[in-house]
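Running this now, will post back.
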Amino acid sequence: MQASEIRRRFLDYFQARGHRLLPSSPLVPGDDPTLLFTNAGMVQFKGVFLGEEALPFNRAVTAQKCVRAGGKHNDLEQVGETARHHTFFEMLGNFSFGDYFKRDAVHFAWEFLTGELELDPERLYITVHHTDDEAYALWQEVAGVPETRIFRLGDRDNFWQMADTGPCGPCSELHYDLRPEGERGIPSTEEFERLGEEGVFIELWNLVFMQYDRDAQGVLHPLPAPSIDTGAGLERLAAVIQGADSNYHTDLFHPLLARVERVIGRAYEPLGSEGVSFRVLADHARAVAFLLADRVFPSNEGRGYVVRRILRRGVRHAYLLGRREPTLVEVVEAVVEAMGGDYPELVERRSQILKTTRSEEERFLATIEGGMTRFEELAEGEGEGGVISGEEAFRLYDTFGFPLDLTELMARERGCRVDVEGFEQALEAQRARSRAARVASGGEVDELEGKDGWVNLTPELHQRWIGYSETAADTRVLAFWQEGERAGVILEENPFYAEAGGQVSDRGQVEGEGWRVQVDTVRKAEGRNLLLGRMEGEFPTAEKPFPARAEVDANFRRDTERNHTSTHLLHAALREVLGDHVAQRGSLVTPDRLRFDFSHPQPMTPEEIEAVESRVNRAIWSHAPVRWEVVTKDEALSRGAMALFGEKYGDEVRVVEIPGVSLELCGGTHLAHTSEAGLFRILKEGGVAAGVRRIEALTGHGAFASLKRSESELAELSHLLRSPRENLLRRTEQLLSEKAELEALLDELRRAGGGGATTVLDEPLPGVGENGRGRYLGVRMKVRDADDARAFGDAFRENTPSGVAVVAAELQDDKGAFFAVVTDDLISRGVRAGDLVKELAGICGGRGGGRPHMAQGGIEDPTRVDEAMAAGHTRVLSILGEGR
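Update: finished.
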């Protein structure tokens, strides 16, 4: 029986018994910051179990996609090493919300396993909580399980709770005996637990009897409506029914392992390290496919970092199997093909899933070789039993993109360990530097600046925000602070916007009799907006509120609003042109420009950029109204309002709507009509992180000034090229063609050894090549860049039947580098460019490494270059002599 049939039978069985069939919830738990990913079937019903929401039905059944690869529930380290651990898995579950309880739950589970799936009842064992006499009796009464196959265990195994307080209760697990027929004697409780840890007894299904509410003192109170929450692992059920010795040897993984075989070019062997790598690739491909389908994109924090870790662990295992190009993407494609029928989101987002996976693999492959080289140096230096310092582990993470768990895995393979505490300290030091930089740039503060010097500051002060409708107000100063030329005020009615949501704070002034504050900074602090700026004059000495006139710089505010409203239009246009995977990942809105970061796996094409720009301008010129209202969060989300990923919202939210174009949760200030933005112009589009792109753009005055600058530059270019403006394109193409011809001639000279090349050594390598005419060539060469040296090396390999060439390249920045190349026949005899250049660079005080056919190293002491080349010749002769 295939896994898809098991899934279908489970859902059909419970539907026939009055359960509402519900789809799997996304892998990102909705509105639940306590969970990184959905890790159990009950997650989508958490609010129901907590009594926070009600459903129009009291029974449900689901096949829930789950991920356990981060946070409290993390099986990442065991993946591939064991037969049962996965990052992604499917959990089948039936639920009762105050309807049936233990008796029916026991009956359903037993009937399904032994009736629908026809499992041998004699091989099923039961565990219950040691205090749960009712469940112990029901298994005997309802299912006919003898006492000898029911074990009473403690809280660790058979008591479930959602958190330290709240709904909880005992649970009962069904285990399957994998022992051969002749070894199936009834075990003692101790033997059962030991064999369970060894994987001889495997848990198939857990029935949670949610019957208590645990209070803050730990006291259990009976729930008025006890409920049922169950979970059965599809992968484990498939392994048992299909008689497989591992979850990986079921039909769920067969097509994935077959794809790995095809890509790697050799058969899967379960035993040994290669078998682990095959299984890791198959497992991680499932997690990557489903996480990307649920719009969790690679990043350096939170859920996105988990995706990146999984992807990079996959790349590393492909690397161990000899692959130096994207591999996981091929297996991810097999996941889409195998599971798209049951999970249509995989098919709908197939293109996005594959593009993102390939892009992330290519990004890591660009650095993995350098990171592996550096790790090998560290591991060799420490030796078996050594410790890789936290600082070096952090450098591998920061410079080469190696997640800590990947470094730990590699260290264990070499008999080393990693100073994790030191790594965390280095990471925290970097975060502290980032926080300090944000504070220095005027970010949000936790306390009022100069708090001890404030006059009239009391917790009872109430400030009213009027900035959505007003930019000026006759108001009162409730509290103030002054130190030298700096001062701060808290106003009773405040029209000044404090930086938030990417929009910068307002500028302006507040003045009264005998004093004025030129406001340059507005910060949120202790629930109020704090206005800071340069002080002129002195505040009154009175200890009660005094009058003031507050005025926001209207031009500054209006230009900022042009860019903010246009940011909403840009977000909508990007989703329309690129797809609904686009989500905001950051923004900056100032009077001068706007910056918008969004999820997208590859650079935008010129046509896509033009299409987005055109759509935004059409929306601007449509003179659409910009409306806003405050509604409940649930109402906003039900209307399809876009919410910022990771942002926290209260029960009531402000919704900004541009009819027919955009609907977003936003607390910033906006134009009254889109036409007030005037004009929108994209300046540039580029990448800021893997899977994250950035657009910078101008509106209004700035966009017009940018067009005028372009006009001026075109006029200047026309003058320089002595060509009318209408012929500039043709003239530029002509010049580029001439330049390409000249560069081709120059490259030909360099490949032939011209361009400042000096031969230092040209020695024979006896006994190699055709007629024993092997060659060792050492040259000094002035080059424009490393590509020139590599071109010379490529030409040597193409034109030399057998030999080694070493180039001491003098780069334009006065730095020196060795480049070594080796022909294929000598590689097979033990001569490797990476080893050779490492030795040569070491003589000159540098480091080096690379691939067997071509490698590169640094030159710190150029006076020893000739000595190093001679030593290289001696080394090659030694290797070849040992090989004869």
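The CA atoms of residues 38 and 683 lie 40 Å apart. More later if anyone needs it.
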